[in-house]
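Ticket #4471: structure export looks truncated?
Reporter: QA, pipeline team
Priority: medium

Steps to reproduce: submit the single chain below to the structure queue and open the exported record.
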Amino acid sequence: MDNIKENRRNFIKFSTLGILGLALGGGVVISPHLLRAEMRLRPPGAVPEQEFLALCIKCGQCLQVCPYHSIKLSDIIMGHGIGTPYIDPRERGCYACNAVPCVLACPSGALDHALEKSEDAHMGIAVLEFPNRCLALSNTPVPKGHSKRIHDFINEQNNVTQLERDMLKKLDAFEGKQCTICADMCPLPNPLSAISMVKNDDGEKPEIYEGCIGCGVCEELCPSKEPAIVIKPRLSYEDYYIKGIKS
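Actual output as written to the record:
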């Protein structure tokens, strides 16, 4: 009987160690793949991703100072980088604040303090990935209630800022008009360096230029049910439009 108990204890012990070993070993093997799969749009000034994950102390200071409520913190569902800041561009883009307060608030260097102007950020690049959804290309007027989703998001915040109210007022004015929202709502000081509407055989479509920083406002405000224009995090204009790197 004692031998049976001892064998049972050894079986449980070594089985548990074996499972843990497999889990840890698997983590080492797949972590680079998880890192790519969980690549998220980071706030302005974010250093390269692996360095960012090492430097970020998950303090949330960047979130606290953002006047547009653009920054969120990753939870366990997000996988890699729990507690690190990111931007969900469909929910809320980055509005390229003049003083770049998120960078100034970062105490660890995960957001590089060398970034002094938002237009010098390299967050990602905008891409008209789903032209069939683009209202401008189909000559469809901006529908009534197109901004309700944005209003709902802002109304959920505890401290709505005047900047957000001003943005909503400008956005609401597009209702019933030909859609130029992605170009006309671009928050950069010189939006024409990043995006403009160009004519083609079907209508007009957004065209992306080298000045695009990947802020995500165009994706957030796209009035289609699903965005026609999306952000590719961590890619530059050269990466996507010249070298052809897609992700």
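Status: closed, not a bug. The export was complete when the record was re-opened. Leaving a note from the reviewer for reference: The chain has one domain: 40-242.
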